[in-house]
Structure formats: structure tokens, C-alpha cells
Specification:
This protein is mainly β. The protein has a single domain (2-144, 157-171), classed as Porin, CATH 2.40.160. Helices cover 12% and strands 65% of the residues. The protein is built from two helices and eight strands. Strands 1-2-3-4-5-6-7-8 form an eight-stranded antiparallel barrel.
């Protein structure tokens, strides 16, 4: 896990210091995540479906039409019939985005992300952590500029950030 975090930090630091580029902050909600679909809780069919995922990220424009940056995702759930057995999912990923089409208001893009999911399970008076591979494959996303500094967006893909994702971006 430390290795992944160091690699992400090094890549972000390299691209951030390489040249002055545009940056944006993102916040979104995604429904039906990788954590539900791919058993990031070590088995057991008695786990409730998570409520979705909250996502935060920063992106840096490193080349024409190409953005890269880190993201953090949080989600949680519990076991059915055992309300004291909870799962907290923390995903840290490095994302790359390519803009396919752009006009003065709308941008259409695709996105790929890789990283780690840390599952923190609590039960009775004990807890344990487990790590899993995280990814996000988003072939289609679109953002609509509301002003020079704020955009809203929607994405369709699959991974830790959700099957369908909606949110906003603040352009710095």
C-alpha cells in the first residue's frame, strides 16, 4: 500500500512541477461500485449493498486534451442481520482522462483509474484491514460548463467510483 501511495505522489509531483497547467477539483456521487460487485469483503452472501460512493479528486491538464490526478473514494456497508459488523471502503487511485470532443460548453471524455481499496471491517470489539486492487473504466463522460469556474458532469463506467457517477468540478 505504501508503494502505491508513493508512486501516486511521485507521478502527481512530477506532472505538477513539470509546467504550469490548469487544475480542477472534483466531487461526485457514484452508484453501485466495484466493492459491491467484486466481493471486497472476503466472501459471505449476507452483506448489504453499499449506499454508493463519495468521490473527491484533483486533476491536472498535462497535455492538450489529457488530464491526470489522484482521487479518494469512500463507501460503507454492513452485514445483514449483524448491524455491529460494518465494512468501510477507502479507495485511492490515479486517474487519467482524455477529452474526445470539446466545444465552448460541453466536453465528452473517457477516463481510466487504478489504485488500491482498503477495506476496514469492524465486528464486536475487533477490526481488521484488507487491501484490494481498485480500478475505474469510464468510456463515456460528459461535462457541461456552467461558468468559467464551475462544471457539472456525468459518467457511465464501472469501478470503485461507481457505475453511474454525477458531480461537479471547480476549475482553478
Amino acid at each position: 500500500m505504501k508503494r502505491y501511495l508513493l508512486i501516486i505522489a511521485a507521478v502527481v509531483a512530477f506532472f505538477t512541477t513539470a509546467s504550469a497547467q490548469r487544475a480542477e477539483l472534483t466531487a461526485s456521487y457514484g452508484g453501485y461500485t466495484q466493492m459491491d460487485a467484486m466481493d471486497c469483503h472476503d466472501g459471505g452472501g449476507d452483506v448489504n449493498t453499499a449506499w454508493g460512493a463519495l468521490n473527491l479528486g484533483a486533476n491536472f491538464n498535462i497535455a492538450p486534451n489529457f488530464w491526470i490526478g489522484p482521487s479518494y473514494t469512500f463507501s460503507s456497508t454492513s452485514r445483514k442481520h449483524h448491524s455491529d459488523n460494518k465494512f468501510y471502503y477507502h479507495a485511492i487511485m490515479l486517474n487519467g482522462r482524455y477529452n474526445y470532443y470539446r466545444n465552448s460548453i460541453v466536453t465528452v471524455y473517457g477516463k481510466v483509474g487504478i489504485g488500491s481499496i482498503i477495506t476496514h471491517e469492524t465486528y464486536d470489539d475487533e477490526s481488521e484491514n484488507k487491501g484490494y486492487f481498485a480500478f475505474q473504466l469510464t468510456p463515456v463522460g460528459a461535462q457541461v460548463g456552467l461558468s468559467n469556474t464551475v462544471s457539472i458532469f456525468g459518467e457511465a463506467g464501472f469501478g470503485a467510483q461507481g457505475l453511474i457517477q454525477v458531480g461537479f468540478k471547480i476549475h482553478l
